[in-house]
Amino acid sequence: MITAAKKLGGAAGLEDIRYVCSSAEALECDVVDGTVDLITAATAAHWFDMPRFWERAGRLLRPGGSVALWTTSTEGVHADTPNHEAINRSWEAIRKREIEVFYGVGNMVSQQLYANLGLPWTVSPAVSGFPEDSILRKEWGTEGNGDVEDEGEEFLINGQTWRGLDSFEAVMGTGSPITRWREANPSKTGEEDVVRVMRREVERLLKEAGVAEKDMAIKAQMTGVLLVVKKE
């Protein structure tokens, strides 16, 4: 990831960006405590030791500095996808039969859009310096918040673009429950791999809906959340 980041550079230019490998709980760097404006983590905080993370973040941030944490959850395929109801039913059956047992606590916290993520005032021991009324919570794509496109937000639009089935298979294969499934089922490769089984189901159901093989693609139904907490 750092190699890719160095190639991209970023708006500030390569010479202004430093990369340091560290755990989220240690945040080891040569930045002076009390001088950081923003600490952010994308689809990762559900694996942190949150009491230790908040304690370290509190020391690094300047007064008024922010912690911004966000994650997403895939709720199956979007209604724009042909035969989407049948695809979602099939996926849910495979998930319950094969994958659900390999969900870790972090996976569930992310899937629940950080509703149960440890915050400075809820962790034990509690971490002072972050007023509870400073929190901002913004959701995308959830019931009562409108569809992602309807809100005019770009936060999740990239996740809801059409994907060819090769891309779908590659993305699905990166999930930690899938990694654990594969570790527990080393003999099930090729057509027996759980992601390949899901892909074949998509192909079958798209074909059933009259989609030509060359046109087969799906669109994900995404939800997301952004939490921002400020230091007093």
TrEMBL record:
CDD domains: AdoMet_MTases. One of its GO terms (molecular function) is S-adenosylmethionine-dependent methyltransferase activity. Pfam families: Methyltransf_11. Residues 1-68 form the Methyltransferase type domain. This is Methyltransferase type 11 domain-containing protein. It comes from the Eukaryota. Gene3D superfamilies: Vaccinia Virus protein VP39 (3.40.50.150). InterPro entries: Diverse_substrate_MTase (IPR051052), Methyltransf_11 (IPR013216), SAM-dependent_MTases_sf (IPR029063).
